[in-house]
Amino acid sequence: MFKLNIKNNNCVVDIGTNKTICVIFTNDKKNNAKILSWGHKKTFGVNKSIVTNFNSFSNTLLKVLTEAKINKLIKNKKIVSNITDKGVYYERNFSYINLDGLKIRKKDIDKIKKKNSQKSYKKNMYLIHSFPLKYKLNENEFLKEPIGINCQRLELESINIYVKNKLISNLANGFKDSNLVISDLIDSAYASSIGCLSDEEKKIGSICIDIGAGTSKISIFINGKPEFIDYIPLGGNDVTNDIANGLEMSNELSEYIKIVQGSIQFSSNEKLKINMPNGTEKIITKNLLNGIIKPRYEEIFELIRERIYSKITENLPIKKVVLTGGASQIEGAINLSEKIFNRKSQLSGPNTKLSYFNKKPEFSTIIGLILSQKNLSQLHWNKSNYGIKRAFKVIDSFDDWITDSFT
Ligand SMILES: Nc1ncnc2c1ncn2[C@@H]1O[C@H](COP(=O)(O)OP(=O)(O)OP(=O)(O)O)[C@@H](O)[C@H]1O
Ligand SMILES: [Mg+2]
Predict the structure, then answer these.
(1) In the chain, how many domains are there?
(2) Would you say residue 374 lies in a domain?
(3) Side-chain half-sphere of 66: how many Cα atoms within 13 Å?
(4) Tens of pLDDT along 226-278?
(5) Which of 148, 292, 373, 386 is least surrounded by Cβ atoms within 10 Å, i.e. has the fewest?
(6) Does 107 map to a domain?
(7) Residue closest to 361 by CA, chosen among 345, 344, 348
(8) Domain containing 285: what range?
């Protein structure tokens, strides 16, 4: 029987435009994440993945955290949250250290990682990730840490990811009423890809697209490492709004019709009867519904293609597109993706034994947040000093998985 040691429990929160989820988990003896409890509620006070109304968002959080029994299970009041910045900025950084022919030690690797994250600065932005991409020594390139090899000069190339300071203070404000401290922030696009891409997909080169309610998140992995992160300020709610405007219906009804009857693939003259709240009936054809939904999805995919154009035309090894997030479940999304990106596409969700989350695309971010906590080699983030000191956080590898949960 698994013994609960409350001190080792961790809490992660996915703040989405439509839903907020909190998961409390612990690591068992084999270092597998074990989910202990969760809370899941509709989000209020967030628009396009950004906190816009602190009171409403605080209330949502309190409800979610209470449902997850945070007071019973989390002692240190620390949580890890995703962050979505449509203006996310990333850059490649290079550093080197001289080793005068000595063998490379773990200490040297830590030193060069730190150097690469500390020399990096972007005004009004905060460095949230520094991912080591490759090491260079003796004219050879290494994807893994080249410990034990003698060398004169060790070089490291990293990708550093920044979000706006302002967004961090917004988030921290939202958490104030819960008396919780954000101990770590994970980029949403990165978290989603960690939640749904397999190691093989990261290795062969894949584009991960999380189409959520408010935003679409894009990440590209090549050789197992993150290569690109970006956002499009459009998601499933824009599709729902188009239906509501086009058919003069409430958002609730439009959401229902979209999920039950929506498609971007097949259209026909088949008639759909919609019971309106005022007791009347509205008859529309599937063609009409399809004609409203499809252009918006095409716009989303076309905008994404524009953002990643250089990556997909540069002859880079990118073999696949993986769609995730709630709105990627629309019928026909895979075909549209294959047409637009000219690559094999598939719909994916996280792989966990817990049926509540398993294979459900809307839960890629929350499961990615859990997985991202396993490989942090160093992290310094302090609510009081963001914007002044830069974070030093390095994520090495992502090959752990949730193998056991909820007994
Ligand atoms: N079967 C379906 N077909 C089409 N759209 C769907 C389906 N199921 C859910 N959606 C849409 O998915 C969206 C919700 O997705 P998700 O839960 O990933 O968003 P979120 O995480 O709250 O938002 P975000 O990440 O953008 O801040 C809604 O717009 C919803 O209408
Ligand atoms: Mg989301």
Answers:
(1) 2
(2) no
(3) 9
(4) 999 999 999 999 999 999 999 999 999 999 999 999 999 977 899 999 988 88
(5) 148
(6) yes
(7) 348
(8) 198-347
